[in-house]
């Protein structure tokens, strides 16, 4: 098997890597070793890694290589190294949920997605950092993880997003070929925006959550985070499907081999209120994207989402379910061990959401879902900026939330967006792709949101967009940051970076 | 069974009321705080009734979890309650019918 190892290969897409591996032009073992080396050197600088699964990875890589050489090729993920958010268990390795109380906990089983990816031939190289307890307690700063702030490889003084902070940073920095994240209220889309990735929130019930942390039974979703929209399709095809261990999952196959020929004109609607108050660069990037989309889609401007109080629904449902899911931590006072001050305190307030108020939120959710379903049925996708701003600073709190312009010395803050909250409330899919750069040379993103189970259409549209742009082919200047004496801070003491061989 | 349920509810309510009474005996929380914590800001969305509700909830939080919360942190907890309450008030304004069921499904055979 020829070795084609160079610095370019670690930034290749899953499709490119898979093609070379299938043709015996690329060794899964050498590829795995390359990613392991980057995880162990760059990973700590970005706060991206909790545990490098070196021993398991090399075993799986050797097996993959042997199988492929023997002609037993399993498919496009065979021999591809990936990382999983530390929300999901991997047998024999710590599963921390990003939080100090669980930093040494080890489960003796794999999450369903880990099992499915192993069966697809993918190689688990790392458990990736995340915001503590999936960010459901209302954290207000990048410090909300026991491994320290997640940093975007585009500029490590800025946040990688969350709660899937490690998957975002690691995939963008070429530490893994792809990763798996989870989303309840924006945890895949936010790091995809901040790190310049293609990240997909799947339809509620599309991918099993079994073996993963629960933040909210009725909101939690799982999805791929990749360097191209096409890769999202390849990964999703391997992890979608019914799982008796997760009663939310359904018997609804997802098949993806590649985008169809560009013969169809899509119907895309631009959501009013999603971009007008965004940072100027984010707005300009979004508006520039319209011209590209118009090459293969009919655009309808300024459509309005059905009018429901999505944010209160989301906060009430997530708050009540999180208070129940983490009741033990709340009642025992272990919330004191959280890294972020809001995370240490908000759980107590969440226990005060009454059963009646929770049920009222779930009652309002139903007409909201039905109205959104009717609305989305008119289009192949609706679009808006993934976030109104580029990444916020890793320093301090997310001050200035909602302000158009950060104060001097203050980083751009995450701000409310029109699509992410509503989409999570009603459980529909969305795909974020990079569409330019803004302040501090940080990436901006655009999200495509569609009807339930429309992942294939969203991917097809995003692939057409990425065929006409090169934003997803840009690489973060990570080597520059690694060389810089004033580069990102070293890892937080106590964080685990290279253990559990 | 019905009697047991009734007794359980009664006992729970009594405990709740006892808790409220005990909470009322505590010093008024914001005023009792040291100065180093940020002062709780009154939300413009909250009226006097809402503020009284927040006071009651704050008292329960303090009774249940006060040993885990530093005095300087109490204003932050109160602010979280205010934010939470503001959202809940917004939800209460959405018109829904008596027969509108929550968007969750109980399945008797679990399938």
Question: Features of this protein?
Answer:
heterodimer, A: 501 residues, alpha/beta, Amidase signature (AS) enzymes, 16 helices, 11 strands, 34% helix, 13% strand, disordered C terminus, B: 111 residues, mainly alpha, 4 helices, flat, disordered N terminus
Summarize this entry quickly.
Chain A has 501 residues and is an alpha/beta fold. Helix content of chain A is 34%, strand content 13%.
Helix content of chain B: 55-70%
State the low-pLDDT regions of chain B, or none: 1-42
Number of helices of chain A: 16
Oligomer: heterodimer
Content-based structural category of chain A: alpha/beta
Poorly predicted runs of chain A: 401-412, 489-501
Query: Order of SSEs of chain B, N→C?
Result: HHHH
Task: Give the overall pLDDT of chain A as a whole number.
Answer: 92
Query: What is the terminal-to-terminal distance of chain A?
Result: 26 Å
Counting DSSP E segments of at least 2 residues, the number of strands of chain B comes to 0
Question: β content of chain B, as a range?
Answer: under 5%
Number of domains of chain A: 1
Helix content, binned percent of chain A: 25-40%
User: What is the spatial order of strands in the main beta sheet of chain A?
Assistant: 1-3-2-4-6-5-10-11-9-7-8
Walk me through what this model shows.
The complex is a heterodimer of chains A (501) and B (111). With 501 residues, chain A is α/β, with parallel strands linked by helices. Chain A has a single domain, classed as Amidase signature (AS) domain (Amidase signature (AS) enzymes, Alpha-Beta Complex), CATH 3.90.1300. Chain A is 34% helix and 13% strand. The longest helix of chain A has 22 residues, at 355-376. The radius of gyration of chain A is 21 Å and the shape is globular. The two termini of chain A are 26 Å apart. With 111 residues, chain B is mainly alpha-helical. Chain B has a domain at 2-25 and 46-92. Chain B has helices at 2-24, 29-32, 48-65, 74-92. In chain B, helix 1 (2-24) packs across helix 3 and helix 3 crosses helix 4 (74-92). The model of chain B is unreliable at 1-42 (pLDDT under 50).
């Amino acid at each position: 098997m020829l070795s084609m190892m160079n610095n370019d290969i670690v930034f290749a897409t899953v499709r490119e890597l898979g093609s070379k591996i299938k043709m015996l032009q690329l060794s899964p073992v050498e590829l795995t070793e390359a990613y392991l080396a980057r995880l162990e050197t760059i990973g700590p600088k970005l706060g991206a890694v909790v545990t490098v699964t070196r021993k398991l990875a090399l075993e799986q890589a050797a097996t993959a290589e042997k199988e492929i050489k023997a002609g037993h090729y399993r498919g496009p993920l065979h021999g591809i190294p990936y990382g999983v958010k530390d929300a999901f268990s991997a047998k024999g390795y710590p599963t921390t949920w990003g939080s100090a109380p669980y930093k040494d906990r080890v489960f003796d089983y794999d999450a369903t997605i880990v099992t499915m990816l192993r069966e697809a031939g993918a190689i688990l190289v790392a458990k990736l950092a995340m915001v503590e307890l999936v960010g459901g307690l209302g954290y207000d700063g990048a410090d909300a993880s026991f491994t320290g702030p997640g940093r975007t490889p585009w500029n490590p003084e800025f946040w990688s997003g969350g709660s899937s902070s490690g998957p975002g940073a690691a995939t963008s920095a070429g530490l893994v070929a792809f990763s798996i994240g989870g989303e309840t209220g924006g945890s895949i889309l936010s790091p995809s925006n901040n790190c310049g990735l293609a990240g997909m929130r799947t339809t509620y019930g599309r991918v099993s959550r079994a073996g993963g942390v629960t933040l909210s039974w009725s909101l939690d979703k799982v999805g791929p985070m990749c360097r191209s929209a096409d890769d999202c399709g390849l990964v999703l095809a391997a992890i979608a499907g019914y799982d008796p261990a997760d009663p939310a999952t359904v018997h609804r196959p997802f098949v993806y081999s590649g985008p169809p020929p560009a013969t169809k004109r899509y119907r895309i609607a631009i959501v009013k209120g999603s971009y007008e108050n965004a940072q100027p660069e984010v707005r300009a990037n979004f508006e520039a994207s319209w011209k590209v989309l118009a090459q293969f889609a009919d655009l309808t401007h300024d459509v309005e989402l059905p009018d429901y109080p999505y944010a209160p629904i989301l906060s009430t449902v997530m708050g009540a379910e999180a208070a129940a899911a983490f009741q033990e931590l709340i009642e025992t006072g272990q919330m004191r061990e959280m890294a972020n001050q809001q995370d240490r305190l908000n759980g107590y307030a969440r226990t005060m959401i009454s059963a009646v108020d929770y049920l009222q939120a779930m009652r309002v959710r139903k007409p909201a879902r039905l109205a959104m379903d009717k609305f989305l049925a008119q289009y192949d996708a609706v679009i808006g900026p993934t976030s109104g701003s580029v990444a916020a600073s890793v320093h301090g709190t997310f001050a200035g939330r909602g302000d158009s312009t950060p104060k001097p010395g203050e980083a751009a803050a995450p701000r409310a967006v029109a699509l992410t909250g509503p989409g999570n409330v009603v459980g529909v899919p969305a795909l974020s792709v990079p569409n330019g750069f803004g302040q501090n040379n940080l990436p901006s993103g655009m999200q495509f949101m569609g009807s339930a189970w429309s992942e294939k259409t969203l991917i097809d549209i995003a692939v057409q967009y990425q065929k006409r742009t090169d934003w997803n082919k840009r690489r973060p200047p990570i080597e520059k940051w690694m060389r810089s004496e004033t580069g990102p801070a070293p890892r937080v003491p106590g964080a685990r970076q290279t253990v559990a061989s | 069974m019905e009697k047991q349920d009734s007794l359980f509810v009664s006992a729970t309510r009594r405990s709740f009321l006892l808790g409220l009474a005990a909470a009322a005996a505590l010093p008024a929380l914001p005023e009792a705080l040291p100065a180093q914590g940020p002062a709780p800001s009154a939300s413009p969305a909250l009226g006097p009734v809402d503020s009284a509700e927040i006071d009651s909830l704050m008292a329960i939080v303090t009774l249940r979890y006060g040993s885990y919360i530093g005095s300087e942190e109490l204003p932050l907890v109160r602010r979280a309650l205010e934010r939470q309450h503001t959202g809940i008030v917004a939800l209460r304004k959405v018109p829904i019918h008596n027969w509108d069921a929550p968007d969750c499904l109980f399945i008797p055979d679990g399938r």
